[in-house]
Amino acid sequence: MRCQSCRCDELSQRRRDTETKNIRIEPVAFESFGVRSMCTSVKTPDVSILIDAGASLGHRFRLLPHPKEYEALRQARTAIARAASSAHIITVSHYHFDHYTAAWNNVDAIWTWSSRDEAERIYSDKIVLAKDWRKDVNPSQRKRGWIFQGIIRDSSREFLVADGQSFKAGDTVISFSKPVAHGEGNTQLGWTLITTIERNGDTLVHASDIQGPVLDSTAKLLLDSLPQTLIIGGPPLYLSDYKIGQDSLSKALGNLVSLAKRIPLMILDHHLLRAENWRQYCSPVFEAAKAYEHRVLTAAEFAEHPERELEHQRKILYDSDPPSEQFQKWLNLPEQRRGRMLPPL
């Protein structure tokens, strides 16, 4: 690796139409699979790349995740480890727990099921291309990145800072943007990297946590790349009027419409799917894509995987499918003890 500074038959056909001999895409873990993640396996004839090898669950409705969410997390962890085993390169766009596997000394039993052993299993003997933990980073991610690189650097094959850099493997070029705002900018959420993979005229862009994008400058970066496929995290509609205003949501929607008109396939997922009404919000995006004979799919639709938008259903799940007595006992444990003991499923 050298730095250059540089629904069935219809869905099956859609997927075949977007796959080429140059770039093959496999969603590994996503919101539409039931967990917080945008983990994606990308393979070219030259190299296998795993983007953002992390998954987590999150706070919602003052309830801990339902057993079905923990089952989805277990499946995601298994899928990430399997994808990592055959990957040559693993990327880290930023240090939020749903985008990398943290190297804690003890397992985090509630939110991520990550641990030092799990992180070393994923990243050992890999080329790790990671967000710089020293600059363009908020305090919490600086600490996480420093811990991560301190542990993983020795066990990885190479550990390289990716911000604004390009790397080449055979005829495949893997490029990273300079840090862009995690959403609106001027918030406590920090910055993230956009990943672009190119081979012989085919281009894939993976844009974690740009939330729409809200910012026109980020939308321009995506449009300038003109990828055949864009994997993008939509805006956090579920935080409407709490942490994101209506003006920002309108801006994000307008940018998504512009992207749908220009990009043949958009895999739209992540924060957006935490809101039950996300499809209604995105109706102008679907209409724009249809008008241009383009496609907008969730990761689950693209992968022909059952859709499992579990987080926004958490209250309903607790009512309709009450947890077992053993799970209830785990819920009632003291927080510190519960945090070190995986829930019984």
Label this structure with key terms.
single chain; 345 residues; alpha/beta; eight-stranded mixed beta sheet; six-stranded mixed beta sheet; 20% strand; disordered N terminus
**How many β-strand stretches?**
16
Can you write the helix and strand succession as a string? EHEEEHEHEHEEEEEEEHEHEHHEHHHH
How would you classify the helix and strand content by structural class?
A: alpha/beta
What general outline do the C-alpha atoms trace?
Answer: globular
Strands side by side in the biggest sheet = 1-8-9-12-13-14-15-16
Count, helices: 12
Write a brief structural summary.
By secondary structure, this protein is α/β, with parallel strands linked by helices. The protein contains twelve helices and 16 strands.
What can you see in these coordinates?
The protein has 345 residues and is an alpha/beta fold. 34% of the residues lie in helices and 20% in strands. It has helices at residues 9-18, 67-85, 116-123, 139-155, 216-225, 246-262, 278-281, 283-291, 299-303, 314-320, 325-331, 335-338, and strands at residues 2-3, 24-30, 38-43, 48-51, 89-92, 127-130, 158-161, 166-169, 172-176, 180-181, 191-192, 194-199, 202-207, 229-233, 265-269, 295-297. Strands 1-8-9-12-13-14-15-16 form an 8-stranded mixed sheet. Strands 2-3-4-5-6-7 form a 6-stranded mixed sheet. Strand 13, helix 5 (216-225) and strand 14 form a beta-alpha-beta unit. It is globular and about 55 Å long.
